[in-house]
Amino acid sequence: MQSRHAIVAADVSGCWDGEQTLAYSLYELLVEDMLLLADRGFYSFYAWGQARRSGAQLLWRVQAGLRPYWLCDLDDGSWLAVITNPVVGLHRSQKDRLREDARQSRLLP
Q1: Over the stretch 56-98, which tens digit does the pLDDT of each residue have?
Q2: Cβ contacts of residue 11 below 8 Å, gap of 6+?
Q3: pTM of the model
Q4: b or e along 67-86 (b: 16 or more beta carbons within 10 Å of the residue's beta carbon)?
Q5: What are phi and psi of 25, to 5 degrees?
């Protein structure tokens, strides 16, 4: 099987801008039929949300300390999870309701 990659866009800056900062300018260029792969250094709740609003599919590694709420296993060995904004202080009952809504597929795209 051949690997197919395409460079769709790039952002270049001086040494004072980090990769994560430069990535934000690229999220708005994503479209629905794209798949964005990202390493764990790029994950943040805000970055994920910005990239996801593009409609593109996302497959990101996350830091070991992130504890998403497991929803279900998928056939390929991966799994679906719910992540909540760590800045927003949700009460346990609100988190439980959000997780149940996701489990019932009311929040899944």
Answers
A1: 999 888 888 887 888 888 889 888 887 777 766 667 777 777 7
A2: 22, 23, 25, 26
A3: 0.68
A4: eeeebeeeeeeeeeebeeee
A5: -70, -20
